[in-house]
Amino acid sequence: MADNTKKKSSIIKDAISLFLITMVAGLALGYVYEVTKEPIAKMQIETVNRAYHSVFTDAVTFTVDEELTKVAAEYDMVGLDPSFNGIIIDEVDKAFDDSNNLVGYVFKVTTNQGYNGTISLAVGYSLDGTVKGIEMVSISETAGLGMNADTPKFKDQFSNKTVERFETTKTDATEEHQIEAISGATITTDAVVHAVNAGVAFINANSTEIGGGTNE
Amino acid sequence: MNKLLERISNGVVKDNPTFIQMLGMCPTLAVTTSATNGIGMGLTTTAVLVASNFLISALRKLIPNKVRIPSYIVIIATFVTIVEFLLKAYLPSLNASLGIYIPLIVVNCIILGRAESYAAKNPVVLSAFDGIGMGLGFTVGLTAIGAFREILGAGTIFNFKVTPANYEPTLIFILAPGAFFVVAILTALQNKLQLKSATNGSAKSTLSCGGNCGSCGGDTCTTNREKIEASKEIAASKATVAKKTEAQDQKNS
Amino acid sequence: MKELLIVLIAAALVNNVVLSQFLGLCPFLGVSKKTGTATGMGAAVIFVMTLASLITSVIYNYILVPAKLEYMNTIVFILVIAALVQFVEMVLKKYSPPLYNALGVYLPLITTNCAVLGVALINVTKDYSILTSVVHGFGAAVGFLLTIVLMAGIRERIEFNDVPKSWQGYPIVLITAGLMAIAFFGFSGLL
User: Fold this and answer.
1) Which of C79, C112, C166 lies at the smallest CB-CB distance from B217?
2) What is the pTM (predicted TM-score) of this model?
3) CB distance from B45 to chain A under 8 Å?
4) Nearest beta carbon to residue C75 from set A25, A117, A187
5) Which residue of C has its CA nearest to B181?
6) Which residue from A116, B54, C124, C150 could staple onto B128, CB 3.0 to 4.6 Å apart?
7) Where are the domains of chain B?
């Protein structure tokens, strides 16, 4: 009997100490979370901003296009094209040059078609329908393979091209709309190409500035 | 002072977790696609290891014996999450390239293994230095394997081109199968040269937990092994008894 | 329906947990000596991983997200998985002794199996719904069963081969795993 109560009290003691450790751990985590929340958010905004500036060098200021961003949030991308499955346009910004004229759009698009999960990239798109450039915002593909999507050699293939739809090719790109696949990483190439296409198609279909909206 | 240095050399050379103890095989194979990833993963693990060793050693007299494993896991998971926040805030690209392998540090055998076999029995400062040593040893291992795979598979090291222009990189080495091949070659070399290693030749090694269960998860692992052995070899009870006493000895020591 | 099927096939074959994500290597290398034990281990993983995917994604979506505690997922998941394994072991022991005899010994090994935690975390990072999470967990576990049984089958044969001395044991198993990983690349054409 005495043994029994002793056992019980030790179980309670064990449970209490485990509970205390878990509680302190939880509180500590909550504290660190609060402290790092701001730097994390700041870092994300900065990364996106830097990407915006590098994809649209002619533009100086960017302001969020609330209307298009809102439309994008509920837009049925697959309705535009089946290959846009799993692609979301997170944010559309208007790009202005130094004399405050609207020169085009930049947008951030996220695709889950990547080999290791999601890839987010920023795309600059001018009013005359030219892709100004692309930049990776977050990418976690295989180093040495898919990660090569984040090299100028790959990204520059998109710059200053006025095409409606890019296409992946496994041989040397001969035509304007062809993008040379990264060797050994066709899935990543396709994911990026589809994401750019999806963004371009969305802007063309919805922006009143470029003309898609008025055609509806 | 000497004792502290001894802990570090022990971790880096004598009991190197990658080359000698063969622990933490999941990250060793998964993130060593480049030297940069290897060093990033190694240092992240080191940070968690030092912090958890320090705290577990400080609390070693307060944590009841029966609930020590869950307590350790809670402490380790907390530090892993904290490190994850810091990476997100200050090194987002590393965080993105290591992905879910950062939270998976929680189940890395090395950390629980060091907590159980060292930090739970030794004073605070020594435990922290043990963490530094083991962590650096792990970093060296991952970086070396990462560099090897990167040179063969991409022709670069830390993203600098090092191979002659006419060398066509052997892609397979940075793909998943390459990881298995590289570690296979490594262990074969150890066997050939008769180096001290957890996987070295001995037929009785059951390979669980990357080769050596006894030094990995403390008695959770040992009992697991006991159970499996017992179920497999009820008939050959003699062997089982021998193993059990061996495991018991390990537990007691 | 079609999407669930794609998730299932992708998890089982294309993004195989062991051969392409390197999760659950310990049991894969440690318990693959005999096809019998490998099958037992695989079955136990299917059981636990499916259940763990269900429970962790329910907890994530109905407790952590409303309470804005998403950042606690690692610590919560590992505790839930550890508790779940213990619980399953107790329930099986009490209500289904035959099943317990078949799977029981493998259950404790699964707590330290990073594949279960890994799959739970992937469910969250990929924003899977509860149903998709369960399908993904089940698929990943089927992939695990498939690879560990295949591996055990191969290892039983390797026993009779004349492997060079320094390649015996661990090295030849890793080479085999590498060759299997190459073979599994073929599945990426499925999607």
Assistant:
1) C112
2) 0.82
3) no
4) A25
5) C175
6) B54
7) 2-222
